[in-house]
Amino acid sequence: MTRITLTNEFFRAEIALLGAELVRLQDSTGADWLHDGDPAWWSGRAPILFPMVGRAVGDHIRVDGQLFPLPQHGFARRSTFSVVEAGRDRAVLSLGPSGETLVSYPFAFRLDIAYALAGATLNVVATVANEDEKPLPFSLGFHPAFRWPLPGGKGVHEVRFERAEPAPIRRLTDGLLDPQEYKNPAASGVLALEPGLFEAGALIFEKLQSRRVAFGPPGGPEVAASFPDMPHFGLWTKPGAPFLCLEPWQGFAAPLDFDGAFAQRPGVLTLAPGEQRRFVMDITLKF
Predict the structure, then answer these.
(1) Name one GO biological process term (predicted).
(2) pTM to 2 decimals?
């Protein structure tokens, strides 16, 4: 088995054991709302970012004075998870330390990803547990890519934030957080989308006010993402690509000039031994 399928009257969702990644989200008509993973644009669909969101300076993190190689967005998206539970409309997958992970991240951890269908909502819960005898630093993010345009969607699509977003946005330089701040194009809470917005890469909302965003044309189909536990957010696509990523994060790429320990990096959380933290994302479709 390489995938788990969940179904209810609204959805058919497929989750790959590789990365515990949602790879298909079909409505009752059979239309798929997720990017198809066409590598001509981007092979991802909805990767889980752990134990790091974004990139580290030199692609290494510093732990106890030593450098460890850690690729952009961490290793979870390239790791095979074990199945804890698999039912008709709910599944739980789990990842723990291995010889491979310890080379990059010298900690004993447990990452559980739970998926559950409830009406027209897919509930995703990521739980990080510290199973080590020392503090566990980490960041975590969701990275779902939805089709643009959405199935049945016509005309200009928008991203509608729960609140106004007056704080400046940030951008990346060589995958790292640039110190310069930019005027927020979603200051009103509504961002009309056009490919030129992404010529300079992702839009990074470091000081996000909203905990819910919706994507779609006015009055048309809509996908909404709610993420009560995630204080940061990214919007990303490639100019002209047929998808848009709505990315709730805890943490973000390292600042360009960052030279500290991983635990000191902005956006990184630390769990005490035996402690755990959960992060929720609800994806709701309106046909």
Answers:
(1) carbohydrate metabolic process
(2) 0.97
